[in-house]
Design a protein that fits this description.
Blueprint: H1 7-14, H2 16-29, H3 34-41, H4 45-54, H5 56-64, H6 66-80, H7 87-97
Helix pairs in contact: 2-3, 2-5, 2-6, 6-7
Protein name: Transcriptional regulator
Length: about 110
């Protein structure tokens, strides 16, 4: 019997960690220290260091997608300028990214 999961649970397990790593990576590339960049996206520096290696291909896939990369860059710009990042912005990014992980689109967006 297959375990019942919601679309958001699937995305939280497969998509969100990769997006967090990709956003932290972009922040670090702009000179933000690893500890601060990791904290900004809600993970530890240790998790970032482990996952940047373990999820290298997934991060590359996300960043290689022009639309997703533009959305990540927009979020990074907001973070760097001290603006609030609304949860709906991240939800939209996650929803758009789901296709890269062979998940159905978010039913709520």
């Amino acid at each position: 019997m297959k375990k019942l999961t919601t679309p958001c649970e699937d995305a939280f397990r497969e998509v969100v960690p990769v997006l967090r790593i990709a956003i932290a990576k972009r922040l670090i590339e702009r000179g933000i220290p690893v500890v601060k960049a990791s904290k900004e996206v809600g993970i530890s520096a240790t998790t970032y260091e482990k996952q940047i290696k373990n999820k290298k291909e997934e991060v590359k896939k996300v960043i290689s997608d022009e639309e997703i990369n533009d959305m990540i860059e927009s979020l990074v710009g907001r973070i760097l300028s001290g603006q609030t990042v609304e949860s709906t912005s991240f939800c939209i990014l996650c929803s758009k990214s789901r296709r890269l992980f062979n998940l159905p689109p978010c039913p709520n967006l």
